[in-house]
Design goal:
The chain is mainly alpha-helical and 169 residues long. It has ten helices and no strands. Keywords: Membrane, Transmembrane, Transmembrane helix.
Amino acid sequence: MNAFANRYSTPFLTGLFLVSLISGIALFFHWSSGTFHAMHEWLSMVLILPFAFHIWKNWRALIGYIKRKQLIWPLVISLIAAAIFVVPSIIGNGAGSGGNPAFRAISTLSQAPITHLAPVLATTPEDVIKSLQDKGLSVISENQTLEEISRNNGADARDLVISLLPSGK
């Protein structure tokens, strides 16, 4: 194992870092995001293994950085940079709060009364109610929300929203 780490950790680390760098730049500029997204995520996960081998191989040097306190500021600055993106999402403030916009949209739609939801779905409240009843759900009024209906019927509100979305044909 030590021979493998000595021989391959840095070359693999370099190769996978370059893949991550190029795919990250492509994602940042929205160049063929569908092509690069999965590659960036998965190969960045694979990058962890050669990184761990590299740390193992260079453990003494890392300890030297720690003893000389040369590692503190780079780590602090890196954590602050990460926090700038993470904290607003966690506390719910800022432009990017609340996570994935699709999940926020589905949550918002599930909280709207059927009378408000139907026009968004390009249909009528009666058709929404019929569709829900065809799924075996009890609907009392067109003023109910999908959240209420799902709670009363033991269903998942998100699944109901998704099932009502137009097919896009």
